[in-house]
Specification:
single chain; 420 residues; alpha/beta; Rossmann fold; 2 domains; eight-stranded mixed sheet; six-stranded parallel sheet
Length: 420
């Protein structure tokens, strides 16, 4: 198939003002590579958000990025992006008139709107992935600019596109609250690079017998205050909080200063490390250095860190929300607790730590689940299968019978694994 991926960013942005922009960009890049490796011709369309970017760039065999001049060549706040969507839509329409893709897959509501604008001139089947919905972000207190009309527009876009690819079961429920029936939605989770994230390989240096790791922003909805209190009750543990602004900018970050004061008041400042943003190059070694990936977040739409940790042979202990609820098999690859029950999180964590053989077994099972369920090869095949259905539903014909057979074979294998 010829596939157009429309995204806010073709690669993770330099700034993390939007806590999920980088995860979504990484997902698009991983998906694009997986689809191209599966024999499809893939083009990622993204706004030129950095100086020096070319008009087009080959990212991998079969995978090209096209950077659209719309607005300043810099990362801009989400509430400023809608004013450039008409220009992006015109570019897409002109490009697709020259060479029409078989299907368009738009990531984020702004990309969905741009794709629908282009489809007025060049009708095509469009799949939409929101990843993180505005109503859910507001309910959970996720920081970010107030994008005027976002909630209303997400519902309109969801009804207008050919179909929706959600990342989690929670997202399906959020879409249902917008009036979108489950029959229009298919769940395809985020993937993991199981070649980079695996149990073998170098590990970062650690400073205690027990290391707990959290990967994510320092925002309030991540529940880091609860993790600091849990560490206060685990005198032999160190806690590494990986994420937030660049390490050199930590001292100027309000959330960091608040959490630092709390750590000091709890007497755990010497056992808590704030790393700031961790590069993709260094993250695998950091994950291998931990015993458990832990989270008290109330909202997790992507789950990239948890899946990567599982692929590295690390169990996950977290609230049963979003991607955690889908990825973690409670009592097998980690532990899940109801959100808001940090007392139960501590209790179950203590029980797990008291049984080292169970901790080891969880890690082995976590790696096995990640390798079987979340490798990019499988995610790419499932996505391609979803595309084939949408193209057929739109009234077209599958572009590649071979690609369809490959996707169907992957689905058949998945069904056999689930049945077993």
């Amino acid at each position: 198939m010829k596939i157009a991926l429309v995204a806010r960013h073709a690669s993770p942005p330099a700034t993390l003002a939007d806590p999920y922009a980088a995860e979504q960009a990484a997902h698009v890049a991983g998906l694009g590579r997986a689809l191209a490796a599966g024999g499809h011709k893939v083009v990622i369309y993204a706004r030129k958000d950095a100086p020096g970017l070319p008009d087009r760039e080959t990212l991998a065999p079969g995978l090209t990025a096209r950077y659209i001049k719309a607005g300043p060549p810099a990362t801009i706040p989400g509430d400023q992006l809608p004013q450039h969507l008409a220009e992006i839509g015109r570019y897409l329409a002109a490009s697709w008139k020259k060479e029409a893709p078989d299907i368009v897959h738009a990531h984020h509501w702004t990309s969905g709107l741009a794709a629908l604008l282009a489809a007025r001139e060049q009708p095509l089947p469009i799949a939409a992935s929101f990843g993180s919905l505005g109503a859910a972000e507001q309910r959970h207190g996720v920081p970010g600019p107030a994008e005027n009309g976002r909630n209303r527009m997400e519902g309109c876009i969801a009804r207008a596109v050919t179909g929706i690819l959600a990342h989690t079961s929670d997202e399906v429920a959020e879409l249902a609250a917008l009036g979108i029936p489950g029959t229009r939605v298919r769940v395809v989770p985020c993937g993991a690079d199981t070649a980079r994230f695996d149990p073998d390989g170098p590990a970062a240096r650690r400073h205690s017998e027990l290391r707990l790791l959290h990967v994510g922003s320092l925002a309030a909805h991540q529940g880091l205050d609860k993790l600091l209190k849990i560490v206060a009750d685990l005198p032999d543990a160190e806690l590494v909080l990986a994420g937030g602004p660049d390490p050199e900018a930590l001292d100027h970050d309000i959330a960091y200063r608040k959490l630092g004061k709390l750590a000091a008041s709890l007497g755990v400042a010497d056992r808590v490390t704030f790393t700031g943003e961790v590069s993709a190059k260094n993250l695998p070694a950091l994950i291998r250095s931990t015993d458990i990936l832990i989270s008290a977040a109330s909202y997790e739409p992507f789950g990239t860190a948890a899946i990567s940790a599982m692929a590295s042979g690390k169990p996950v202990v977290a609230n049963a929300v979003g991607a955690f609820a889908d990825a973690v098999v409670d009592g097998t690859t980690g532990l899940l607790v109801p959100p808001g029950r940090s007392d139960l999180l501590l209790k179950r964590l203590r029980e797990l730590l008291a049984t080292p053989m169970k901790l080891t077994g969880f890690g082995i099972a976590a790696a096995d689940r990640a390798r079987s369920r979340y490798p990019w090869e499988r995610i790419g095949a499932e996505t391609a299968a979803a595309y084939e259905r949408l193209v057929t539903a739109y009234g077209g014909r599958p572009a590649s019978q071979g690609a369809s057979a490959t996707a169907q074979n992957a689905e058949n294998q998945a069904e056999r694994r689930r049945a077993a």
